[in-house]
UniProtKB/TrEMBL annotation:
Record-linked Pfam families: Ldh_1_C, Ldh_1_N, UEV
The UEV domain, residue ranges: 1-131
CDD domains registered for this protein in UniProt: LDH_1, UEV_TSG101-like
Source species taxonomy: Eukaryota, Metazoa, Chordata, Craniata, Vertebrata
Catalytic activity: (S)-lactate + NAD(+) = pyruvate + NADH + H(+)
Name of the protein described by the UniProt record: UEVLD enzyme
Domain of life: Eukaryota
Function of the protein: Interconverts simultaneously and stereospecifically pyruvate and lactate with concomitant interconversion of NADH and NAD(+).
GO molecular function, one term: L-lactate dehydrogenase (NAD+) activity
Encoding gene (name): Uevld
GO biological process: lactate metabolic process; protein transport
């Protein structure tokens, strides 16, 4: 069934010589539209050096039009591995690389693809080991949920704690019933911050998996619906949907998400005209921009989860692991998600003596670099992003006026002149972003933010809204 069988076989022989650990087989691949095809695929590990040497498990599906079409690439993590979502890897382990986007026979080869894969993975490890602390956090979340299901938290006490009267109805809608959407529902329910949580399941077919489990065990105040009208008058709408399918390039994947949002955002905006849109879909910077454009909401009420989780972790690492509590004050991770994020500060006590001040800055830079290295080893599981979403939702609903690093319109900051969303420290309240907190002037940080803004803007220009 392979149109260019001889060319395909010859190339795979070369792969086998270079990577003898790979195993080949024919299996059925299911595409986005539900169609299936028997395709040649091979699985194995590629060596990656990231401080230590790691063997990263991958699986490549060879299209029947190979070598004129690029392979479809996935990570194949073992049960004790987690996927680190980034610029080149999505939450499902799908791998996206410039090499795939620019694939052209005979210049492009599978060997060349694997070499670029190794190079990108050495910049940012795509997998991490699930630690005992990860398991402990999951157990903690589940214990909170158990308390809710046992009725240990009543509505009146939650209203009182939240500083709201019983007549104030806090409703949250989570759009998307995938792993991330369900994690957000569980985390919000565990926090006890909403009177009603709507989970909009937009998937085709009958409810299954986690959605079915939610129906079976019936968490209090959680409702599952397939009708947009169920979201009416939500205070916060969390967007977690991502398009899955057989898109061949990173741009195709984003465009597929844009097409998906075209059918969601106008309906959400119609039923909840005063809501704050909180975007967790990937890539968060671009999809927050798309949500802003499609909703026509003011920029203050469209934000992305951005680097909130990274910032909380960064501050925790500085304080608890590196014992640098003073440096943790005003410390943030800003920019875009993935390898281009950068540490920054909103305040720093510069010593009057210039020499001492320079020494203090050098110390801070060294400690920050160590903290960022630790941070790179922490992946973002669905449940951890869910906890971050609950944290942001809590600040919005309770008008906490707390500072978070979230994706916000960055135009006018750091000499950025385009409509792009980047993570920056912002004060959050019931109306979304109340105020952007000024960053300490640092030429390296500004250069990084401007570079990210440029690449994101170029990508947005290629999208069809």
């Amino acid at each position: 069934q392979y149109k260019f069988r001889d060319l395909t076989v010859e190339e795979l022989k070369n792969v086998s010589k270079t990577y003898p650990n790979f195993t080949f087989s024919m299996s059925t691949y299911t595409f986005k539209d539900g169609s299936q095809k028997d395709l040649l695929n091979f699985s194995g590990t590629v060596p990656v050096k990231y401080g230590h040497s790691y063997n990263i498990p991958i699986q490549l599906w060879i299209m029947d039009s190979h070598p004129f079409a690029p392979p479809i690439c996935f990570l194949k993590p073992t049960p004790n591995m987690g996927i680190s979502v980034g610029k080149h890897v999505d939450a499902h382990g799908r791998i996206y690389l410039p090499y795939l986007q620019n694939w052209s026979h005979p210049k492009s080869t599978v060997i060349g693809l694997i070499k670029e894969m190794i190079a990108k993975f050495e910049e940012e490890l795509p997998l991490y080991s699930l630690s005992s602390s990860d398991a402990a956090r999951q157990s903690e979340l589940l214990s909170y949920i158990a308390k809710i299901t046992e009725g240990e938290t009543d509505m009146k006490s939650r209203n009182k704690i939240g500083g709201k009267s019983e007549g104030c109805f806090n409703k949250i809608t989570v759009v998307g019933a995938g792993d991330l959407g369900i994690a957000c529902v569980l985390a919000v329910a565990a926090k006890g911050i909403a009177d009603k949580v709507i989970l909009l399941d937009l998937s085709e077919g009958a409810a299954k998996g986690g959605t079915m489990d939610l129906e079976i065990f019936a968490l209090p105040n959680v409702e599952i619906s397939r009708d947009f009208s169920a979201s009416t008058d939500s205070k916060v709408v969390v967007l977690t949907v991502n398009s899955l399918g057989n898109a061949q390039t990173y741009l195709d994947v984003i465009q597929s998400n844009v097409d998906l949002f075209r059918g969601i955002i106008p309906a959400i905006s119609h039923y909840s005209q005063n809501a704050v849109l909180l975007v967790a879909s990937h890539p968060v910077e671009v999809m927050t921009y798309v949500s802003w454009k499609l909703s026509a909401f003011p920029k203050s009420r469209v934000i992305g989860v951005g680097a909130n989780l990274d910032s909380e972790r960064f501050q925790y690492i500085l304080t608890n692991l590196l014992k640098a509590e003073v440096l943790a004050k005003g410390a943030w991770v800003v920019g875009e998600q993935g390898e281009d994020k950068v540490p920054s500060w909103t305040s720093y006590n510069v010593v009057a003596n210039q020499t001492q001040g320079l020494a203090a800055r050098n110390t801070r830079e060294k400690v920050a670099n160590r903290a960022m290295e630790v941070l790179k080893g922490k992946g973002q599981r669905s449940w951890s992003v869910g906890l971050s979403v609950a944290d942001l939702t809590d600040s919005i609903l309770k008008d906490k006026r707390k500072v978070h690093s979230v994706s916000t319109l960055a135009k006018g900051c750091c000499n950025i002149n385009s409509d792009v969303f980047l993570s920056l420290p912002c004060i959050l309240g019931t109306s979304g972003v109340i105020e952007m907190v000024k960053l300490e002037e640092d030429p390296l940080v500004q250069e990084k933010l401007q570079s990210s803004a440029g690449s994101i803007h170029d990508l947005q220009q290629q999208l069809k809204l």
